Amino acid sequence: MPIIAEYEYLKVKSMEEALKIKSEYGNKAKVIAGGTDLIPLLKENYIRPEILIDLKGLKEIYEIKIKNNFIRIGAGVTFADIIKSKTIKKYFPILWEASMTVASVGVRNRATVAGNICSAVPCADSAGPLLVYNADLIVVSEKGERKIKIEDWFTGPKKTSLNEDEILLFIDIPILKNKNAGCYLKLSRYEGEDLAQGSLTILKTGEEYKIAFGSLGPTPKRAYKTEEYLKGKKINDNVVSHVQKIIVDEISPITDIRATKEYREHMAKVMIKRGIEKTISRYYNGKPKYGEGMIE
Amino acid sequence: MKTHKIKFKLNGETVLAEVKPNEVLIDFLRYKLGVKSPKIGCDRGDCGTCTVIMNGKTVRSCLVLAVEADGSEIITVEGANKNKITQKLQKKLHEKNAFQCGFCAPGMILSATELLTENPKPTKEEIKEAISGNLCRCTGYEPIVQAIEETAKRENGE
Amino acid sequence: MKTKIKEKKQIKEIKKTYSELDAVGKNLNRIDGWEKITAAAKYTDDLEFGPALLYAAIVESPYAFAKIKKIDTSEAVKLDGVVRVVTGKDFPYKFGLYMKDRYVFARDVVRFVGEQVAAVVAKTPEIALKAASLVKVDYEEMTPVLDPVKALEKNSPLVHKDLKNYPHVPWFFPKPDTNIAHWRKTRKGDWEKGFKEADVVFEDTYYVPRYAHCAIEPHSVIGLYDDSGRLTMWTSSQSPFTQRNVFVGALEPFGIKHKDIRVISTYIGGGFGGKAGVSMEIIGAALAVSCKGRPIKVLWNRAQEFYNTYQRQGVVTKIKMGVKKDGKITALEYTLYWDAGAYVEYGANVVNAAGLSSSGPYRIDNLKIDSMCIYTNLPPGGPYRGFGYSEFLFGLESHIDRIAEKINMDPVKFRKINAIKEGDTLPYGAHMNPTGIQEAIDKVSKEIRWGVKEKSKDKNKEIGKSVVCFWKSPAMPPNASSSAFIKFNEDGSLNILVSGMEIGQGLLTVMAQIASEILKVPISKIRVETPDTDRNPYEWQTVGSHVTWGCGNAVKRAAIDAREKIFDLVQRVYCLDRSDLYLEDESVRCKTNPNFKLKFSDFVINGIQAEDHTFKGGPIMGVGMFMPEFASAIGDPETGQGGHPNVHYTTGAAGVILEIDKETGKMKIKKAVLAVDCGKAINPDLVKGQIVGGMLQGFATVLYEDMRFDQNGRLLNPNFSDYKIPTAKDMPEEVVPIIVETPQPDGPFGARGVGEHTMIPCAPLIANAVYNALGVRIKSMPVTKEKVALSLLKEKKS
User: Fold this and answer.
1) Contact criterion met (CB below 8 Å) for C365 and C328
2) Could you report the per-residue pLDDT of C116-137, keeping only the tens digit for each?
3) In chain A, fewer beta carbons within 10 Å around the N or the C end?
């Protein structure tokens, strides 16, 4: 299927060059890294940019680097890079686990984490892990650099707080000092690659839980009330059945082609129960291994 | 719309070409260069028939612009036919009558080649994961998975 | 009775020959294997046509039902690079396979979302697409007909007001001034009496949605109408000869006859029925005729592949069944309301096929079947692997499990009691062919340990099992025929020319094995290629799982013809008695003269040198044709009795062990088993390939696939992101293929077809196994994990 839109293409040699174009063209300039979301949109003629800015010539976007108390993931880091990275697996295993569920190898070899959250679809697989890990997004423009908290990033379906003249450059994730474990649960129509019907991310550090959901509302989001309730609680059947009620209040799923509202609500309850079980098991026993048993 | 001069290696040979920024790699390979092993199945990254190996990794050539190929090294089945791992796999695929209509074969073979190159002893689950982005409507996948498994076993002298 | 004795004798004779077979029955490697594995195989869009090639883009209807008020092409024509813009005005002739109810482009009325209204031909695909967006069409929307049952209501809008004037085959019965395009009635015995005699009468309704074939290769066609008036079509097709015939039907007014059209079919990237008949190819033919002298390519994208090729029709089925306590079915009333779509030129025959066979593989003496082909404003229905049988079997086999439970009978025992036997009277009055269905049921039951309740290791999961039966006959005109040429080459190798299509099933290999068996030439020395209607002899279509049987018979006859010519020649030159001659190891041998050995390579082209130094003979060729001369489609319109529309049925049974998560509804197929009576497996490995592949396709239709339309008739999931077809991760844990061989007396070496059969039992298998595990009955396909989980939840609450 040919692309009808006509636009210029520039593989920039420096970030400054990219930002200059971005400030000049705004939304008429589209940034391309992996292109796996962008190119279908071009083919469908949904977007008609005037220029594409290819960042792939910039070395700094490929880094996965341990800084003082955080790890920096560049805008060019693909899901395949994440899966291969021992650093990510060690420090952020839930992000690693979620990355394994993104599309398929040939797409993961190209699709970037930054692109995933810039597309900002409610089912973005990396969103949940980044939310529970409290990632910071470093965006740049000609005016300078600013840091956006991941929880302030998603403003609506396919909408973010990125300004027209800005480019997402780095994802910084603080390193957790305490023992932690968690899981990414993805509900899909079958075993093969799928866009999540619903997802749940859980992170346990000590007595605290951080929980995020995807495809269960207009944007990926933290479940603060659920977290608050779980704080310091010893998990038993009573607590679980209570937390199931809270999570259903906190999400706002719709019926669409992938699932009904009813099933999403039901599965949110199942996922929170199983997710907590799995998280606790991982926390204390290190089992099941990350990447094993998504929703059993 | 300005055209761009690109230079890349295709199956070991240098290609020099001038492309428009809205040309897609799969169309460029098939219709401009006459390389027909990558096929068009869905044109949006879901089916895997357009798979090519770019800088050692499989990519969906329907999701890559031709201009992005500049400076890269691309291998299609026409080139992989000379690769030893691919050849061993192909022999097994033939023995197993692994394909029916054959349309998914080029993509499937490249995905399996990437797997066996990076991970010579894959588990059955890893094999399924590696080819799960290559849709086949005919075979039920079983003979393909078996052929990859047996290639790996033979490779490891088991 | 006489025929039965004759058949028994034939079967005995066929079986006697099996011990001597060299090529038939062997697991040989595909002769097209290396071509496909090295990517040397060429598909239609891989062919080169040079820089003169033109490209088409289609202007499509955004409405399900609307009048076309005006089409303005003026802006599109002005665009640089546009060669032509055509509309329905240019093609005022109807076409169709079994009923002429379509135009090439919609004229006056559009009847489904995505229907072609106009086309732009341009120098590049980009220009064509741009120009297509500049064509302005004014529509007047009408209320669409989207539900086949509501379509029968008196005040329903009519999709085709002119139905009474549509030409059709004599076995269709349209009801003018309604939306019923064809009504197949089958009546046998006294069903009212049958219900009265029953101990239990039970009725219910089942729903089957529409499905898409999802061959990985989209449809494509290139047409060239050259300056001499010859039209060559390169098509991705299961049906080159049928296409030629349909093209003539639509283009004859332009003075184009059969001899002027040449259809060339390359390898095709999957068909499953979707590339049978003529769908988008008609556009390629029409555009080629509009742009004389230049090749034109029409390439469907994935979305068009979903909404503008044939779809598997949806159906609402109502079943009423009566049974005795001893398990005997006393009567069946089966009404099928088919959502046949906007045009039924092919789909009406699916409805017909189901109407003849909805009893399933059971002997039912009192029977009333009404299979109604109903026009709706959804995309045209058509052939899909299974041809109506998957659809009616979902309800029927679900219902059988339920009624068996009502009389407290084991459902497998119930099936064994009622399973059809050789010689039983079929729904339309003819008699059943030899069948190994009992053997199939036994083998499948044993393989899944039927009767043994199994427990999951996981407390959240339950295990269910089921066994169902299936049958299917090729659905084809009674005079659908096959033919074959065989020619020798200098080295004694062979070329087989047929027009049966290699669509993945392995036809080329199987034809080579059949010829190899007769002519004693190894298949490594046999080439069979995809057809060209100018060069290859006639084949009706590659559909209905009939080419191993039909085309195979033609090849066998061609091989025998070549052999007889060889014997004629050898007898003439060497004065040997032909009855002593036989073939072995690529040579002619003689029983009475063990030293006589004449290698094929010594004479099959250049003849045999006689003692006087002259040469006798010449290039050896064989010709074979086959037509089922016993078939007839004409029966009584009110009862269906009297004809012999179906040539034979292939039967079998399938079973499954299914593990289900009670909370999520997630289902894992632990084991799937299918036993099919293929008469004789010419290549068992390829039969197994059909079983493993067909079952996964079948399971997908019941577990997660379905086409979803909105209230305006627009397809919501025309892509693989939301129409999920299985990946390698969705394979059952284990598939056990079982081959049963009860020879088909008129089949080549006893063979009959198996291609479609492997898919059709899968839907009721899952529905019944879900019930077996959880006690939840789901009556509408697909039986998704969502439906299972929510049904359980509902049950818990109530």
Assistant:
1) no
2) 999 999 999 999 999 999 999 9
3) C
pLDDT tens digits along B55-87: 999 999 999 999 999 999 999 999 999 999 999
Long-range pairs of C441-444 with CB within 8 A, sequence gap ≥ 24: C441/C412, C441/C415, C441/C416, C441/C467, C441/C469, C441/C653, C441/C675, C443/C653, C443/C673, C443/C675, C443/C738, C443/C740, C444/C653, C444/C654, C444/C655, C444/C673, C444/C674, C444/C675, C444/C738
Other residues' Cβ atoms within 10 Å of the Cβ of residue C629: 10
The closest CB to that of B59, out of A6, A40, A106, belongs to: A106
Flag whether residue A4 sits within 8 Å of chain B, measured between CB atoms: yes
pLDDT on residue C730: 97
User: How far is residue C709's CA from residue C715's CA, in Å, rounded to a whole number?
Assistant: 4
Supply the pLDDT for residue B155.
65
Write out residues 716-735 of C within 8 Å (CB-CB) of B.
719-721, 725-729, 731, 735
How sure is the predictor about A294, in pLDDT bands with cuts at 50, 70 and 90?
A: low
By Cβ distance, the residue of C29, C38, C719 closest to B77 is C38
Where are the extended beta strands (E) located within B26-143?
51-54, 57-60, 73-75
B154 pLDDT above the threshold of 80 = no
Q: Where are the beta strands (DSSP E) in C586-686?
A: 587-590, 597-599, 608-609, 615-616, 621-626, 650-661, 667-677
Report domain extents, chain C.
44-142+219-299, 480-626
Q: Contact C548/C514 with Cβ under 8 angstroms?
A: no
Pairing verdict, β C54-60 and A180-187: unpaired
CATH entry, A1-175, from 3.30.465.10, 1.20.140.10, 3.30.70.20, 3.40.30.10:
3.30.465.10
Strands C102-103, C94-95: parallel, antiparallel or unpaired by DSSP? antiparallel
- pLDDT per position as a tens digit, C390-441: 999 999 999 999 999 999 999 999 999 999 999 999 999 999 999 999 999 9
CATH 3.40.50.1110, applies to A180-285: no
Longest pairwise C-alpha distance within chain B: 56
- Is residue A295 predicted with pLDDT exceeding 60? no
Q: C480-626: which CATH number, 3.90.550.10, 3.90.580.10, 1.20.120.920, 3.30.365.10?
A: 3.30.365.10
Q: What architecture is the C44-142+219-299 domain classified under in CATH?
A: Alpha-Beta Complex (3.90)
Computed over every residue of chain C, the mean pLDDT equals 97
- Residue A128 is predicted with a pLDDT of 98
* Dist CA C14 CA C743 (whole Å): 7
Taking the C-alpha atoms of residue C439 and residue C436, their distance in angstroms, rounded to an integer, is: 5
Number of other CB atoms surrounding residue B46 within 10 Å = 26
Which tens digits make up the pLDDT trace of C742-760? Answer: 999 999 999 999 999 999 9
Q: Give the pLDDT of residue C299.
A: 98
3-state secondary structure of C590: strand
Prediction pTM value? 0.97
pLDDT of the residue at C658: 98
Domain ranges of chain A: 1-175, 180-285
Whole-number pLDDT of residue A59:
96
Q: How many domains are contained in chain B?
A: 2
Smallest Cα–Cα separation from C308: which of C698, C707, C694?
Answer: C707
